[in-house]
């Protein structure tokens, strides 16, 4: 240990720190999708490409959380868009938007606290 009682830098620590930063960037891309749209797809691609790098770490649960957020959000947006003509679609789209914001905020807060996301 260093005199200041922080763990010594090691390739494993640096790799985990880099993956944690990437996870935060992905949450940021998900937020940006509310304004730019395409950034959600970019975030998803990064999740799938880099998923192997976080396998077996607490960050793997964040990647799973982010991937599921994308796919379930897309599903509910399609359902909402398909039912807009009967007006219930607007409620579905609004609820989906709130749900996505909740998942991004919850994920980012747990990432900030260095905690894994829930299993399931």
Summarize the structure.
With 120 residues, this protein is an all-alpha fold. 77% of the residues lie in helices and 0% in strands. The protein has helices at 11-36, 38-54, 59-82, 88-112.
Throw out a few tags for this protein.
120 residues; mainly alpha; 4 helices; elongated; disordered N terminus
Describe this protein's structure:
- The structure is a single chain.
- With 120 residues, the chain is mostly helical.
- α1 (11-36) packs parallel to α3 and α3 (59-82) runs antiparallel to α4 (88-112).
- The chain has helices spanning 11-36, 38-54, 59-82, 88-112.
- 19% of the residues are buried.
- The N and C termini lie far apart (36 Å).
What is the element layout, followed by pairings?
Elements: H1 11-36, H2 38-54, H3 59-82, H4 88-112
Helix pairs in contact: 1-2, 1-3, 1-4, 2-3, 3-4
On the 0 to 100 scale, the average pLDDT is: 90
Specify Rg, calculated over alpha carbons: 17 Å
Beta-strand percentage range? under 5%
- SSE sequence, one letter per element: HHHH
- Label the structural class: mainly alpha
Q: Characterize the overall form.
A: elongated
Low-confidence stretches: 1-9
Largest sheet: number of strands, sense, barrel closure:
none
Termini, distance in Å?
36 Å
Range of helix content: over 70%
Strand tally is: 0
Helix count from the secondary structure assignment: 4
